[in-house]
């Protein structure tokens, strides 16, 4: 089955005539206020909560906008603190790790938007929240940087409210609103960053129920991601702008076939099939790849060193390769780094061999 969002319990609470749905009121300054009804307010259970949300790999080749997964390693941390007697207010106190590039205005920052949407979803809250963000992921990296921030913010704010807290599945809606403001309305990053594992997005259209599936990986200790992030920035909106409006039927058939193979590889725990399918996109990678210096050489170097396949992670520039063991992963990582340098003249920010993150966002 494929549950639709919001959850029925949550829908009943928001539709209760005694509790009108709150709305978001955006102010001009750095304060964001969620106005709620005058009925009995929901009290926080904690004064402070901190949450971590992991990096993600979206698209996985032919799964453009409908497949993503969470990976172990880096991520973002958000600390949410209660602002007593300031119902619905959201304030961003501090951001570290962004080199001063992100705004403290909560109406324009994904953590502020996600926090406000979370308060809105919970209901008539009695307090506001102040936020601090520790960026562990580089901006424009293709590792779901904005989604990790949004997921961590939603999970941290949600963690303040104890029994009134919502499920991760419900909170994807808050993350989606935040993502829409900075990179587009798509759930293939924020879904896995919140929930962990592989997530298939069956339906994600504004104004319609969100439908997603969690796909259990069928293998054990035979799936590793080699993630190489070069010193190069590929903003998601810019990388979306180059995508074709129409595609040939032959290309569509190929990507449908390879998308099915991708799902089969996941469910059967077949890392080789997964990697081969990931490597076989003929629609998105051919137009984005040339915008990342050296990418095609990186793909070939990865496979020559033993990878099952290699493609762009999300919008790039990070390249992701699939291997079955960490020893091969190390060799593949070295080959990919060398190719970025020799063919693309790019240094490397980071190169890791990571496993699937099955947990997603977690309280610290």
Task: Characterize this entry briefly.
By secondary structure, the chain is of the alpha+beta class. The chain has helices spanning 8-15, 110-122, 145-159, 168-182, 190-195, 236-241, 249-268, 271-278, 285-288, 295-304, 326-344; strands at residues 23-26, 31-35, 48-58, 67-83, 89-96, 128-134, 198-203, 211-215, 224-230, 309-312, 319-323, 348-354, 362-363. The strands form two sheets. Strands 1, 2, 3, 4, 5, 6, 7, 8 and 13 form a nine-stranded mixed beta sheet that branches.
Quaternary = single chain
Backbone shape: globular
Rg, Å, rounded? 20 Å
Can you give the helix content as a percent range?
25-40%
The number of helical runs is: 11
Terminal CA distance reads: 32 Å
**Which class of secondary structure composition applies to the elements?**
alpha+beta
Number of strands: 13
How many strands, what sense, and barrel or not for the largest sheet?
Answer: 9 strands, mixed
User: Element order, helices and strands?
Assistant: HEEEEEHEHHHEEEHHHHHEEHEE
Whole-number average pLDDT?
89
Provide the low-confidence segments as ranges: 1-38
- Give the amount of beta strand, in percent: 15-25%
